[in-house]
Amino acid sequence: MSEIAAKAAVKPARRRLLASRLVPYLLIQALIVVATILGLRLLQPSDPDAFALGEFSLREDGVARPVMLPHFTSSRYSLADPPLYTGAFTFRRGDAAPGWSVFLPRFSNAVEVAVNGVVVLDSRRDANANRPDRNTPQIAAIPSSLLREGANEITVRLLVWGPLKGFLDTVYVGPDAALRPAYETRTLLFVTLPVVFSAWQSILAVILAIMWLMRRREPVYGVLAAAMVLGVIQAFSPPPVPPATVSRLAAVLLASAPMESALIVVFGVLFFGWRWPRYGTLLFAPGIVVFVVGLIAGPPLPRILFLVLGIPTVGVCLFLMACVTAAAVVRRQDAASFTLGCAVSIVLTCWVHDMLSVFEIMSNERIFVSRLSYSAMLVAIGAGLTWRFARALNQVDSFAGQLVTRVREVEERLKASFVREEARARAAALADERTRLMRDLHDGLGGQLVSIVALSERGHEGPTITDAARAALKDLRLVIDSMDDIGGDLMLALGSWRERATAQLRPHDIALDWHVATPQGLPLHPELRPWHVIQIVRILDEAVTNAVKHAQARHITVTIETRGDGQGDGQAGGHGGRGPYGVISVADDGKGFALAGEVASAGQTARGLRNMRSRAARCGAAFDLHSDSSGTRVRLQLPQIFPDSDAAAS
Amino acid sequence: MSEQGETGEAITILLVEDDAPTCWRLQDALVKTGYEVRSAGTLAEARTGLGERAPRVLLTDLRLPDGHGVELIRETRQRFPDTEIMVISALGDEESVISAITVGATGYLLKDAFPTDIATTVRDLVAGHSPISASIARFIVRRTQGAAQNSAEPPPGPVLNTARLTPREIDILWGIAKGFSYAEIASHLGLSRQTVPGHIKNIYRKLEVHTRSEAVFEAVQQGLIKL
User: Fold this and answer.
1) Does the distance separating the beta carbons of B135 and A484 come in below 8 Å?
2) Better pLDDT: B224 or A336
3) What is the pLDDT of residue A301?
4) Based on the domain organization, do A179 and A233 belong to the same domain?
């Protein structure tokens, strides 16, 4: 419900937005159209009216009749028997200016001018002058020997090739100095300027093509480059008219204009970020048809086809372009779309102007301006794109700068976090170490101190409290000793242990025999950690304590040796061999566990044994106890590599 | 039974220990053996005791109520070079023992040692046999390794100058650190068993830093300080 209501609310809102954006835009475009029309009127080149010749007699198809220039003749496809305009002018030798000329501001398609029966100008020799879409003027000096005092005759043969109608603008005959400026103005406007635009277009085509080659994922540059190339070809291609040497090529090239306009529409769609619809390809169909016909059929069919198919296509494309830009203006409201929209409006106005002129609805001097305005638009687009590209480069530069700053910031943060992390890791290691220390102290010292307290409370004086206190001190020394860095040499820890054990055994009058079977003692273990040392030393302590307390031994022998892998029980054979491992054994000459007999101590012994086994397991060592009436032997086979974590503890 | 020096008179011991029970315990063990023991509970008392007559042996704790035992050891070493000095330690940890050795002590005594061991240790000391423990030997040899590696950072613990130790002395220390007896060390190194205690005393003497200026001199000699 609410959704529908929301949708319903959105639609009028969107319509309002559309209206509020489209209406001002259309009004501005209307203004631009008006301005263009006014501009075209104002910019109409002025001709020296004092020397105009308007009254001619036209002989066409064998019939002569008086006509007034400018004049349209019917369209024709044959060059034989062209319309002949005959006029007269008066020449006075006494006039100041010596050189006289004949000036034809506009004609289509070609003229042959004769003065007093002698040809002074034949525009067919200048291919470009014959292009109907160019408003090329012609001027020719009249040799003074031709001029007669008084009345002179001038004849203009108008060569027309359809389907366009022939046209002859007012002819001017007079002193060259008076006619030349008008001619120069027209040449500048209708000959030089298009060439300049075309040159400009070709340069932009190269630039855009390079951009597209380097950035394939932006086809908009490629499309525009193609349009520009077509435009340049069109500007410099010979007109498909009879004097043309390569008429077939010229006919094929007629397809360039509709193609180019279709490409411009593609460009517009892509430029404003839309997808080019598949059916949009139809827009190229007229161009292709003209191309194919130009390839197959001989003149004048391609020209006719161009007129009925090509020119309207250009118009349709311009209209589509206007729609695309209008949509873009509504949607984006940015300078690029607005500028392009204005340019399209100008070109469209010029095209309509030309159409009106072709169909003689609007009387003017048949000056075609759409090509000129279109070239100007293309140049503007190209310049805009280049400008956008340069701005993008600037943005990239500033982005790179920002990136450097950002990277530096991130680096700083990373450094800080690394310091934090390091501190955290240190704290964690410290906490781990503290945990281990607490556990070790708890295992030994804590229990012994509690035992001391208990014994004192019961009022037992004498050796038991002493024993417990000594054990506590011994354990404290063990814990402190184990924290020393012994560089993986277990022998160093055993050295201290021997000292303590000897001191412990001396009052009991028990001898401790120390037997290192292999010269180096035990292999080095770089992975050896304090907690391994504590476990091993506690196992040895337990073994010695058992021997003293329960077995009533007189001698305890500690044997230390290194064994190689896969070797037998051979002694002193620890040299070499793969993965040497150490073996520590504690043997006594007591009466053994089995014969210990006492029920009270049996439980204690069993617990001690269990402790020894679990400690050995935590270090990855193999524990073996052999006990009989001749003594007890504890054998501890150390691992080749001590386990890193205390996994077996749980 | 009475322990007597070369002159025949009883050997005098100055025992400096602030904890009364420990003091009694040590004193009992020593007096029973026949030593003449004077005890002091503070640094001041100990100085007074020293002022009267030079003891043959000084046994001192390090942490005293009015100062540090190291000062006492240094003073005694300077005033009475013939007095044997031992530090009394509860745990025999390197920190306290080594710092005492560097100012002139030549051994240490554990506070909980058995009475017979206490007497034996003092007797050996007077006879010129300085006791050394495996952990102290280990500490010293590991310092010699650290010095050989030229590590930029000094290892933690008290400053120890091991540069004057000979390779043989270092070998002996290694043997002790690994728990070998003097006899075993002597046979390994091809020495006479009797010479080993003398070597150990030499080691103590070499580790001793007599004065501040000497310490500086040593440091310069070894390139530890650049002038």
Assistant:
1) yes
2) A336
3) 81
4) no
Residue B138 in contact with partner chain A when CB distance is under 8 A: yes
pLDDT digits (tens, 9 = 90+) for A167-183: 888 899 988 888 898 99
Find out whether A493 and A482 touch, Cβ atoms under 8 Å: yes
Question: What's the structural domain count of chain A?
Answer: 3
Q: Would you call A476 and B133 a contact, using CB atoms and an 8 Å cutoff?
A: no
Radius of gyration of chain B (CA): 18
pLDDT reading at B6 higher than 70: no
Tokens of A542: 């337990």
Chain B residues in contact with A489 (beta carbon < 8 A): 178
Taken in order B207, B211, B212, B214, is the CA torsion positive or negative?
Answer: negative
Looking at CA atoms only, how far is residue B217 from chain A in angstroms? Answer: 30
Supply the pLDDT for residue A35.
Answer: 92
H or E stretch covering A267: helix A256-271
CB contact (8 A) between residue A470 and residue B117: no
Structure tokens at A200: 């400009």
CA A390 – CA A203 distance, rounded (Å)? 16
Which CB contacts under 8 angstroms, 24+ apart, belong to A65-72?
A69/A168, A69/A169, A69/A170, A69/A171, A70/A106, A70/A167, A70/A168, A70/A169, A70/A170, A70/A365, A70/A366, A71/A167, A71/A168, A72/A165, A72/A166, A72/A167, A72/A360
CA B114 to chain centre: 19
Task: Please name every residue paired with A113 in a beta bridge, in sequence order, or none if there are none.
Answer: A121, A156
Q: Is residue A455 part of a domain?
A: no
- Type of residue numbered A26: L
Given a cut of 50, the residues of chain A with pLDDT beneath it are 1-3, 566-577, 595-597, 599, 648-650
ipTM summary value: 0.77
pLDDT of B65: 85
- CA dihedral defined by A488, A494, A500, A502, rounded to 10 degrees? -170
- Under the phi-then-psi rule, with left for phi > 0, alpha for psi from -120 to 50, and beta for the rest, what region is A62? left
In a domain, residue A176? The reply is yes
- Can you list the domains of chain B with their CATH numbers? 12-126 (3.40.50.2300), 134-221 (1.10.10.10)
Instruction: Indicate the residue of B90, B133, B145 with minimum beta-carbon distance to A499.
Output: B133
Residue-level pLDDT at B152? 47
Answer yes or no: is A57 within a domain: yes
Identify the domain containing residue A153 by its residue range: 51-186
- Chain B CB contacts of A556 under 8 Å are none
- Give the predicted TM-score (pTM) of the model: 0.51
Q: What percent of chain B has pLDDT over 90?
A: 4
Q: Indicate whether A174 belongs to any domain.
A: yes
3-state secondary structure A496-555: HHHHHHHHHHHHHCCEEEEEECCCCCCCCCCCCCHHHHHHHHHHHHHHHHHHHHCCCCCE
In this prediction, residue B210 has a pLDDT band, given cuts at 50, 70 and 90, of low
Instruction: Note whether B178 contacts A494, CB cutoff 8 Å.
Output: yes
